[in-house]
Amino acid sequence: MPFAIHLLGLAVFAQGTSEFMLSGLVSGIAGDLGVSIPAAGHLTSAFAVGMVVGAPLMAVLSRRFSRRGALLAFLVTFLAVHVAGALTTSFAVLLVTRVVGALANAGFLAVALVTAADLAGPHAKGRATSALLGGVTVACVAGVPAGALLGEVWGWRSAFWAVALLSLPALAAIAWAVPAGPGSAGPDDARPSVLGELRALRSPRLRLTLLLGALVNGATFCTFTYLEPLVTRVTGLGSGWVPVVLALFGIGSFAGVSLAGHVADVRPLPLLVGGSCALLGGWALFAVTAAHPVATVVLVLVLGALSFGVGATLISQILYAASEAPTLAGGFATAAFNVGGALGPWCGGLVLSAGLGHRAPVWVSALLVGVALAVGGTALARRRRATAPAPSVPSFRGSGRCGGAPPRP
Predict the structure, then answer these.
(1) What are 109-140's pLDDT values in tens digits?
(2) Burial class (CB in 10 A: 0-12, 13-18, 19+), 56
(3) What are the pLDDT digits (tens) for 326-371?
(4) What is the dihedral of CA 190, 194, 196, 198, to 10 degrees?
(5) How would you write the chain as a 3-class SS string?
(6) Distances from the Cα of 26 to the Cα of 35, 95, 147, 233, angstroms
(7) Rg of the Cα trace of the chain?
(8) How many C-beta neighbours within 10 Å does residue 197 have?
């Protein structure tokens, strides 16, 4: 795997830390800027919306630049808005910086996915995707807890400064290691138009994979978002266990992404089918056994691995299916990932607001994976029927008999 891909993963680590770190900083931001905690929570929603909307839009914008130029522009913007966020005393300004940061993050990830896939070669998109998404999982393991610790010791602004500082070595590394020639966007006559790339969405395979990616990722973040109250109020573990459980989920995620990278390019269908079936059973088992600490600790690790292993494989399959959209493929994949990231917590919030208990989001996760399996299985069955050879019809020509008269014994 080219070293430049791992350097792109470093930038994704910094951006993943920024995306998830607010979960441990909301109270500090609310108190410092004089807003309510629910209002401070809108910072997370603004980032998610910016990621969904920004991925395809920023991918289109990046066509004007070489891929290295686009990556550097997005990363500089991301760094600048975190400096602005660390300095501001206005909640409105902070909200704007989160939206702009999300747009830059979405654009960077969209271009980085395509760049990594090109650098890795035509048959290694799964490994390239895993290397990039490894940065997100490491952010869950180390970056988010570290951000929460910084916020506790030196205030929430220190976490924003830390993300800006993390972006600096990634900026220098990309300028040095990512090629501007072969890896660039290329001249206008060497690639399809924007409308031509959007027409790739007509592909049933691409639309199906986008839907499956959103559903599986929605299941992941439905439970992950509400893991803290589940652990403390159902499992009965103290609040000190919450960082441990979150870290276990992150460790499992990193292991799942890493292992999937070795299989996704050669046997994606068995991985997706087997992994999704295991996910369905795992979420249901977690919902039933959540009151048992040992089961919770083990299943959080296993489900983190399965969720990100299947999710990373689906993202790599989006890149394969969007071969006619070399610029927007990464935007499609990023948007699907973040649609799931918004869908899951929303569904989990609905069942919690309905008073169905803290296990209910886990059941919703199982339901979302079940829907994904049903949709994928139906599509696969239809494709196999469409490609199956027509049954042969016996012919009696030359036998001297008419119609269906049976042959003489």
Answers:
(1) 888 888 887 777 767 777 777 777 777 777 77
(2) buried
(3) 677 778 888 888 888 878 888 888 898 888 999 999 999 999 999 9
(4) 140
(5) CCHHHHHHHHHHHHHHHHHHHHHHCHHHHHHHHCCCHHHHHHHHHHHHHHHHHHHHHHHHHHHHCCHHHHHHHHHHHHHHHHHHHHHCCCHHHHHHHHHHHHHHHHHHHHHHHHHHHHHHCCCCHHHHHHHHHHHHHHHHHHHHHHHHHHHHHHCHHHHHHHHHHHHHHHHHHHHHHCCCCCCCCCCHHHCCCHHHHHHHHHCHHHHHHHHHHHHHHHHHHHHHHCHHHHHHHHHCCCHHHHHHHHHHHHHHHHHHHHHHHHHCCCCHHHHHHHHHHHHHHHHHHHHHHCCCHHHHHHHHHHHHHHHHHHHHHHHHHHHHHCCCCCCCHHHHHHHHHHHHHHHHHHHHHHHHHCCCCCCHHHHHHHHHHHHHHHHHHHHHHHHHHHHCCCCCCCCCCCCCCCCCCCCCC
(6) 10, 13, 12, 21
(7) 24
(8) 23
Residue of 320, 1, 2 lying closest to 179 (CA atoms): 2
Amino acid in position 205: R
Angle between helices 91-120 and 293-321 (to 10 degrees): 60
* pLDDT recorded at residue 209: 93
Burial class (CB in 10 A: 0-12, 13-18, 19+), 152: middle
Which residue bears the tokens 């990621």? 51
pTM: 0.77
